[in-house]
Amino acid sequence: MRRFCCLLLVLGLSIAACHAPQPLPPTSEPSFPVPNEPSAAQVIPPGQVPPDERPPVVTPDISLEPLEKISPVVPSAPVFPVAAEEPFGVVAAVHPLAVGAGMRVLRGGGNAVDAAVAAALTLGVVDGYNSGIGGGCLILVRTSGGELLAIDGRETAPRLADREMFLHNGEADPELSRHGPLAVGTPGALAAYRLLLDKAGTKKLSDLIKPAADLAEQGFLIDGRYADRLRRVAGRLKRDPGSAAIFLDRRGRPWPAGHRLLQPDLAASYRRIAREGIDWFYRGAYARSLDRWMRAHGGVLRFADLADYRPVHRQPIRSGYRGLTIVGFPPPSSGGVLVAEILNILQYFPLARLPAGTRLHLVAEAEKRAFADRAFWLGDADFVPVPRGLLDKGYAAELAAGIDTEMATPVPVAGTPPRAANDLFEHHTTHIAAADRAGNWVAITATLNTSFGAKVVVPGSGIVLNNEMDDFAVAPGVPNSFGLVGAEANSVASGKRPLSSMSPTLVLRGEKPILALGAAGGPTIISQVVQVLINRFDLGMSLSAAVAAPRIHHQWRPDRLRVERRLSLPVRRVLEKAGHRLQTRGTIGVTQAVGRDREGHLRAVIDPRLQAE
To answer: Please, which residues have CB within 8 angstroms of residue 202's CB and are 6 or more apart in sequence?
Structure first.
């Protein structure tokens, strides 16, 4: 029988008994061994891998075309280093100017926390269509003292928001949640960065934001990616005078590649923050001007929403995979839960020994089941019950048992995790990863949601505002910009944080960090993180190869398997024969990572897809 029932028979378990909270006992290890859980007592020197725990060195069997084949003028690596080693530490980000900002902080005596914040503030200038202080972020840190921090800087729904605000004549109007003033949630990134620096940094926010202000004033040359994003949304930006004044010429045309983009208003805003602190943004002149603009344009965000905003300390998620500890972000991120759930399912399959087509089929089936659970169960745990049973190893075994190793199977509804009623979690994007020689490791995922967020800027501020209200389920079963559907758990409510796919992730061997990573790309973030971990720790790839390898993505609805164009035709045929309906994409997301190699050196890896987009 092709289904994965043999595991349950060998372990003497029935499907109903798979809800035990402890890992399944490896009483007998036939074809699907249960890996050991990470031990807190196991302390491994940085960079050293015990001989008996080294991942197998496997020649990747995923056939692929070089990245340059996507476009004959695109090199296979970014113009800035894919991998870099520095004596002070390393930084990975999507733009070389942001990497440079972070590295200057490290060389000037700052730590990885300082460097990551400097990179994030710089990205708000040079990568402003993805992130900025008008958006939000999730931050995961392992300090040099061994403390794990999870800081939630996710946007919140305004206090005047309600579940009917995106309905027109009783029907959901997705345009209202995606563009314009109603789409904007209360920004949290700036408050989260300040909290992070207070908790684990060595530099002041004012010192880190001034260089970014200078860059905004002096300008930078728009690259092809930026110009392409502008071109795609120019029609929307034209409707907002504040946005058009920055991103379009006098004839309403988007600035082309090679244009030096000057942002004097953003520079002035950054300098006001440097002088007056974040109160200027949350309780001062900017908050008052935003309130006036919202009232004049039909929005519901108010001065009080900004004044009352607070980032939240969360308890990180810890799960085990192949003898490692995977540390993820809890709700309102769905990323930490889903990464853990998918890996929990896949640990029952010998991925390293399987052909590429079979392995990717199993990954797709695991993703499908996890994303079904996301749609039904996940939301802001401060408002709705989110069951911890989604992380239960027995529940993962039940889901694994329903996977046919040769054929795609339908997943009509979400599963029912154990103790769903009473064991609960406590009340276009970019990613920055950084690590230093003192032992601080940082993973920050920041976002405005879609490109240029709500496509609105309060005139005179230069600050692009998010459209994170679209990450709520505007109505049951109505897809958002990324095609994700949701249920009551992620409905709109005053002060609530919308569900996110952001997945800042740390990997520990024993209690020593060896990898920090995250990604951009909406729901594909989760798939990217999972597949980099599989490539690195199941297949034994180098970190650069693990990031560069072709990807797939399945999010349950719609029932389509996205595959990158570089995935070989033979592997695609295997997936099609298994019943997957393929949707070919040039690239799937962008991942950034820092890690230790086997010699113990810190390495930063920047996704080569940045040059292919």
So the answer is: 109, 110, 111, 113, 114
332 burial level (CB within 10 Å; 0-12, 13-18, 19+): buried
Cis (ω within 30 of 0) for the bond into 46?
no
This prediction has a pTM of 0.86
d(Cα 565, Cα 563) in Å, to the nearest integer? 6
User: For residue 587, what are its two tokens?
Assistant: 């690239």
Q: String of b and e for 602-612 (b: at least 16 CB within 10 Å)? A: bbbbbbbbbbb
| Strand positions, DSSP E, 68-159 | 83-84, 89-92, 136-142, 148-153
Measure the CA–CA gap between 562 and 582, rounded to whole angstroms. 6
The rounded radius of gyration (Å) of the Cα atoms in the chain is: 23
Q: Which helix (H) or strand (E) holds 561?
A: strand 561-564
Query: pLDDT tens across 519-543, in order?
Result: 999 999 999 999 999 999 999 999 9
Q: Considering 186, 429, 587, 591, which one is annotated as catalytic? A: 429
Q: How far apart are CA 94 and CA 186, in angstroms?
A: 25
Report the sign of the C-alpha dihedral through residues 172, 174, 177, 181, in that order: negative
Mapping DSSP to helix (H, G, I), strand (E, B) and coil, where does residue 102 land?
helix
Contacts of residue 169, Cβ cutoff 8 Å, sequence gap at least 6: none
For 181-198, b/e burial (b = at least 16 CB within 10 A) is bbbbbbbbbbbbbbbbbe
Tokens of 45: 């020197």
Beta bridge partners of 221: 260
> How many other C-beta atoms are found inside a 10 Å radius of the C-beta of residue 156?
28
* CA nearest to 335, candidates 473, 431, 457, 243: 431
- Residues 67-89 have pLDDT tens digits of 323 222 222 233 344 445 578 99
| Both structure tokens of 372 | 């079904």
Spatial separation of the C-alpha atoms in residues 546 and 466, rounded to whole Å: 31
CA 603 to chain centre: 20
Spell out the residues 6+ positions from residue 422 whose beta carbon is closer than 8 angstroms to its own: none
pLDDT tens-place string over residues 312-353: 999 999 999 999 999 999 999 999 999 999 999 999 999 999
Structure tokens at 357: 């087509």
Backbone dihedral region for residue 596 (phi beyond 0: left; psi -120 to 50: alpha; all else: beta): beta
Q: What is the pLDDT of residue 423?
A: 65
DSSP 324: E
Structure tokens at 556: 């349950």
What tokens appear for 261 in the block?
């983009």
Decide: 189 and 209 in contact? Cβ < 8 Å.
no
> Is residue 429 annotated as a catalytic residue, yes or no?
yes
Place of tokens 């520079």: 267
Confidence of residue 485 (pLDDT cuts 50, 70, 90): low
Per-residue tokens: 350: 């010998």
